[in-house]
Amino acid sequence: MNQRAYTLELHSIINSIPEANRNNFLTAFQASEKNPVLLFGFNIWLGALGIDRFLVGDIVAGVLKLITLGGFGIWQLIDCFLIGGRARDKNIQLARQMRDTYRTPSVAAPAAPAAEPAPPSA
To answer: pLDDT tens, position by position, for the chain (122 residues)?
Structure first.
């Protein structure tokens, strides 16, 4: 997924959330999103160990990359071009899951019903 498509999709997800829940959604999303630039750096320095794939959540690919030492360097080179798109795909998937949680507007607790006046005693 390229940067433009990612930005447009993320804006549409944010706009589909009620205004009352947007700040909570943005805070939660920013805390758990994967930074494509950071993953690119992990690929350059520790890509042969599969660290970038482990961080993006591709455990099987990370183990295979670890066992083969980055596919003898070839897989590590290919991931220089692919890891950013993979991180953005995971972020959009996470945002869609979180959108379903934050889509319902937050409702204030209803006030306690007023007590009925006691009937007059005779």
So the answer is: 788 999 999 999 999 999 988 999 999 999 999 999 999 999 999 889 999 999 999 999 999 999 999 889 899 999 999 999 999 999 999 999 999 888 876 544 344 455 555 566 65
Residues ≥6 apart with Cβ < 8 Å to 62:
50, 51, 52, 53, 54
Tell me how many degrees the CA angle 53-58-62 measures, rounded to the nearest 5: 50
* DSSP annotation of 1: -
Number of continuous H segments (helices) and E segments (strands) in the chain: 7, 0
Q: What is the pTM of this model?
A: 0.75
Residue 112 dihedral angles phi and psi, to the nearest 5°: -65, 140
Non-local (6+) Cβ contacts of 3 within 8 A are 88
Cβ contact 45:70 at 8 Å = no
Helix (H) or strand (E) holding 53: helix 51-56
Cα 26 to chain centroid, rounded: 10
